Amino acid sequence: MGDKTMKFAIISDIHGNYPALKAVLEDAKRQGAERFLFAGDYCLSGPWPNECMAEIRAIEDKYIIRGNEENYLENLIGKDQSLWTDGQMQISYWSYRNVSADNLDYQLGLPHKIEFECNGVKVHMAHSSVDFVGTYPFYTWNSVTIAERNRNASCSPRSILEDMKKERENDPEFKKSVENLEKGVYIFGHSHVQWYYTDEEKGLYMINPGSCGLPLDGIRGNVPYTMLEITDDGQVSFEEKRVPFDKESYISEVELTSQFKEANVWTRVIFYELRTALEHMQFFLAFVEKYAKEIGDDVRPYSLETWEKAFELWEEEQGG
């Protein structure tokens, strides 16, 4: 026997969405969570990255790693802010200016990966599944895949996720990608799609809790996280959770913030993602690239004029 049975709440990809973080934390506590596992991406896209980090830092019993979005802030340290005049990076500039120096230092000091043991079970944490099993799973079952499959109006998001689960269970490429993993629990986020894979015989558990702040798995009206339980004798179980969340009220709040004014295009694309729970940003970025090439604009990051004109044209295509 090990220590007492431990209940964990696994939360990832908050992206500055403080109301969603609060809703998930409150639900997790009601579910009996004793320890919290945070899998990265605390900033960019929502206007409360500082509040999110302050809330997380106040939680004593946690394991926490950094994600890829923190890199955008790190890359701005020491740069000449008078040159921050392009359109494309406005969200990074705004986030950098609106995260306290102390909270920024804390985020950038977080490890990229963590391993710990609970009741004889080894738990591995990284922001992306790529750290554990290479690129194949991430580029096969991600937010772009979900959005493309949802173009068929007869398909429901939940049926698509169930179909993808069956694909994983029968996909030789996926099986090959996980065959060298040792037994234990593997926690990651990044794709904004809540999914899992288990091999009970081997004692292998792969868990993506989805995105707390910006879910892109097609399931509307709520935000996800996952509860994990490891018993005193090392038995592992988990349950995917969805917490009701009023995204229209959240959008109305965001429209009152300085982020909406100073990073307007990015924020408005995020509104499309919030309302549909589907990927739009990658498609918009591809649209901007195509537009820039058509007008002979090779300036990167995209200028404010190119960025805003491309959004105007893209939004027309969306019926917007």
List the helices and strands and how they pair.
Blueprint: E1 6-11, H1 18-30, E2 35-38, H2 49-57, E3 62-64, H3 69-74, H4 90-97, H5 101-108, E4 113-118, E5 121-126, H6 130-133, H7 135-140, H8 143-149, H9 157-170, H10 172-178, E6 184-187, E7 194-199, E8 204-209, E9 222-230, E10 236-244, H11 247-254, H12 258-262, H13 264-276, H14 281-294, H15 304-318
Parallel strand pairs: 1-2, 2-3, 5-6, 6-8
Antiparallel strand pairs: 1-9, 4-5, 7-8, 9-10
Helix pairs in contact: 11-13, 14-15
Word description of this protein:
- By secondary structure, this protein is of the alpha/beta class.
- Helix content is 43%, strand content 18%.
- It is built from 15 helices and ten strands.
- Strands 3-2-1-9-10 form a five-stranded mixed beta sheet. The protein has a five-stranded mixed beta sheet with strand order 4-5-6-8-7.
- β9 and β10 form a beta hairpin.
- The radius of gyration is 20 Å and the shape is globular.
The oligomeric state is: single chain
Q: Averaged pLDDT, please?
A: 96
Low-pLDDT stretches: none
Euclidean distance between termini CA atoms = 59 Å
Tell me what the CATH architecture of the largest domain is: 4-Layer Sandwich
Strand content: 15-25%
Order of helices and strands: EHEHEHHHEEHHHHHEEEEEHHHHH
Helix coverage percent of residues? 40-55%
Number of domains: 2
Structural class estimated from helices and strands: alpha/beta
